[in-house]
Amino acid sequence: MHIGLVGLGKMGGNMRTRMRNAGLTVVGYDRDQELSDVASLDDLVRQLPDDAPKVVWIMVPHGDPTHATVDALADLLGEGDVVVDGGNSRWTDDELHAEQLSERGIGYVDCGVSGGVWGLENGYALMAGGSAEDVAKVQPAFDALRPGPEEGFVHAGRVGAGHFSKMVHNGIEYAMMQAYAEGFELLEKSDIVDNVTEVFDSWRVGTVVRSWLLDLLVKAMQDDPGLSQIRGYAEDSGEGRWTVEAAIDNAVPVHTIAAALFARFTSRQDESPAMQAVAAMRQQFGGHAVRATQESPDVPPATA
């Protein structure tokens, strides 16, 4: 199989290597010419053979970069060809892209990809959305990327189903990470446990909380005991928000995922205005002590 791959960053570059290792011919394009096999998208499409449907897989950031790439490919590809979006696009964008490309007779498949920087060695979990005909055209690439011949790939449903599934996967990931993080803080703060890293390490085999995330956390703790070199600041890339929004639309309670998302918002505040208000109210109604900011060292006592 010949396939074009747009976006050769941490994920895309490793995916190119894994597909090539499986015997696929991959032509990669990236704005960074040191990473790219060709000078432009036009060159990429020209290098794909004309005697089979041309398949171009996109691995660029969601939003405007993906929109622009789909727009460009709509003018370069033809009837029977297929575009695959393997980035973290919102599923509603998939519906728009599929409609746009269908006007040119071009198929569209959305594919949630999970595996991160370890995917080159371990393979990727793949969740595809689209018609059975379009998915079949991409199947050799899916088979090359998945962890094994019988695992790690699902045709999840119609267009949008792949990214919707990956979105929910990432929402669950938020919640799992938050649970481990809260357990870490509690163990660190207690004066009972001496070897927090070793405790987490002991959970990695034979317990119901074992997971790859736990393995990665233990590695981080071994590299940096107490995680003293890492600031407690966590971004969110969008999928957690979209999961909560979808839950609202479908009247599904996602208490844990929502709490994990809000915890990330809290992590970005040097001083939480909400908690400042809580402290102020506690001082006012109960005379509870408050801690002054550096700018205001003198805090007046509460009135009765």
UniProtKB/TrEMBL annotation:
Gene Ontology BP terms: D-gluconate metabolic process; pentose-phosphate shunt
GO MF annotation list: NADP binding; phosphogluconate dehydrogenase (decarboxylating) activity
Short name of any one Pfam family annotated for the protein: 6PGD
6-phosphogluconate dehydrogenase C-terminal domain residues: 162-296
Signal peptide (residue range): none
Domain of life: Bacteria
InterPro entries per record: 6-PGluconate_DH-like_C_sf, 6DGDH_YqeC, 6PGD_dom2, 6PGDH_C, 6PGDH_NADP-bd, 6PGdom_BS, NAD(P)-bd_dom_sf, Pgluconate_DH
SUPFAM superfamilies per UniProt: 6-phosphogluconate dehydrogenase C-terminal domain-like, NAD(P)-binding Rossmann-fold domains
Keyword vocabulary terms for this entry: Gluconate utilization, Oxidoreductase
PANTHER family to which the protein is assigned, alphabetical: 6-PHOSPHOGLUCONATE DEHYDROGENASE
Assigned protein family: Belongs to the 6-phosphogluconate dehydrogenase family.
Name listed for the protein in its UniProt record: Decarboxylating 6-phosphogluconate dehydrogenase
Originating organism: Aeromicrobium piscarium
Gene that produces this protein: gnd
